[in-house]
Design brief:
The structure is a homodimer.
Chain A (H helix, E strand, L loop, with lengths): L3 E7 L3 E8 L4 E8 L3 H4 L2 H16 L6 E8 L8 E5 L4 E5 H9 L3 E5 H12 L8 E6 L3 E7 L2 E2 L32 H4 L1 H14 L14 H9 L3 H25 L3 E5 L7 H13 L9 E4 L6 H11 L2
Parallel strand pairs in A: 1-4, 4-7, 8-11, 11-12
Antiparallel strand pairs in A: 1-2, 2-3, 5-6, 8-9, 9-10
Helix pairs in contact in A: 4-10, 6-8, 7-8, 8-9
Keywords (chains A, B): ATP-binding, Kinase, Nucleotide-binding, Transferase
Family (chains A, B): Belongs to the ROK (NagC/XylR) family.
EC number (chains A, B): 2.7.1.2
Chain lengths: ~325, ~325
Amino acid sequence: MEQLCFGVDIGGTTVKIGLFQMDGSVIDKWEIPTRKEENGRYILEDVKNSLNSKLAEKNYSKDQVEGVGIGVPGPVTSDGTVLKCVNLGWDVFNVEEEFGKLTELKVKAGNDANVAALGEMWQGGGKGYHNMVLVTLGTGVGGGIILDDKILDGSRGAAGEIGHITVDYDEKDACNCGKRGCLEQYASATGIVKEANRLLASTDKASAIRNNPSLTAKDIFDAAKEGDELSLELVEKLGRHLGLALSHVSAVVDPECFVIGGGVSKAGEILTEVIKKHYEQNVMFALKNKEFKLALLGNDAGIYGAARLVLDK
Amino acid sequence: MEQLCFGVDIGGTTVKIGLFQMDGSVIDKWEIPTRKEENGRYILEDVKNSLNSKLAEKNYSKDQVEGVGIGVPGPVTSDGTVLKCVNLGWDVFNVEEEFGKLTELKVKAGNDANVAALGEMWQGGGKGYHNMVLVTLGTGVGGGIILDDKILDGSRGAAGEIGHITVDYDEKDACNCGKRGCLEQYASATGIVKEANRLLASTDKASAIRNNPSLTAKDIFDAAKEGDELSLELVEKLGRHLGLALSHVSAVVDPECFVIGGGVSKAGEILTEVIKKHYEQNVMFALKNKEFKLALLGNDAGIYGAARLVLDK
């Protein structure tokens, strides 16, 4: 009898769900709304009903389900306790136990950023590697570290907080985290635009990205690909900040490869190449020549990684 | 019948050996010379003979020996293969297999810096913690990372190369590793003195450390403790470089504590306090308030850690 597993990625607006074969092939994927009312008390019930409906629809029996993996937007301890998920209204409780009781299935939970890294390792940009680091360049800059096929959580669930590595010692503005000079201030989608506006204000040089009130990171990469000088300068500086931060990461955990994801990574190889260039300049010989890959799963990384959680003992 | 384990720390000049109870109490410790002739082919034989003599001397039977842990000065893969130990003349071979055949005992091997970290976790400055980072400030700056009671080796055995994290972007001189601005250039015993000479050359200010042709890191700490202004400035800068590098380490692996060892750490709490101060300024809120401890085992960390290797499955 074919065995299956579910991957559930609980976000602030929608819950993404995937039904997988044990080898990582997706059978189906879908979304349900995240009901946040009454401190999110209906969320797990809604997920359970959705899983059951899917099994019925596909004519699968519950005995075929090996387990359910869940990614949540907040820290999760190794026993499955969530330490508040502000975005969902959740307080402290053991989500593995709770959802296990509801469904009578094996349940494994993890932080969503870390779970996404596991997904990229399993079926995405890091496929075939066992030690990798996912860097997500989106609204913020997140990270997930996989060592020997397992998520590294850290002693307080804060491992892989790559976005808050200090990369500029002279920064005057504060990061969202309160300190100054964090990678996130330069390498998030908003950070990239902020740096562009700083550069544009400092010079009169003509540029394709000037006078664009809705300037985005994509505009800057597009202009850089066309040879726009200021945009190329911005991409170079972004690569320097990221390359430097990832050189630190490498000196600590020595991964096989880095996978770059998030909206900003749609820029493609221009991004991985400039990161790699600055990375190589900042690592000792023993850490040179690592792989830099683009993430492949986009918003589905979470459901893949959640499903992969089930495969661990 | 009482169970025992041996910890062996093979260095370029001497082999340190310890006989331990399983709870980490040392029964005896001693040294033998490292015979490096003929590419170090006699080293393992010498160690075997020394272990057997000790068992005979103490009237222990070989059945009581749970195993032997070995720390070697070079990279070791997870299956026990040493990838050349230049200091010993060794080429590539599996030291666990080889010494296992010689002794008919269970043998586990690891890199000496990592093994020392394990020793400090087991019976030293990191006792009671399961996730810690040892930073060794000696001739060079080394590191060892322990996660969930286990050594982190990294994909090429280069995890924990903390000494080669870039901390100064403007450095003109090259580190031994070839790149510029490595932590080791400022925080090793020689780096500290070099920084002192730079500072002394840049100012006419009177100082207790001026005109000392055999200036050491200890002299600088001693003068700082007496309130010498230039020495205090040097200690502050050292703390800044170390605090910054350890803030990066924390953002990656989120350990419970840092343990500072090596000759420089004899300076004591003045050192851990100035590191902690700069560390706190450079980490995000989730990573604040980590413990900073002094290493306790000195040159014995290696034999403790090697013995501790035997306890792992």
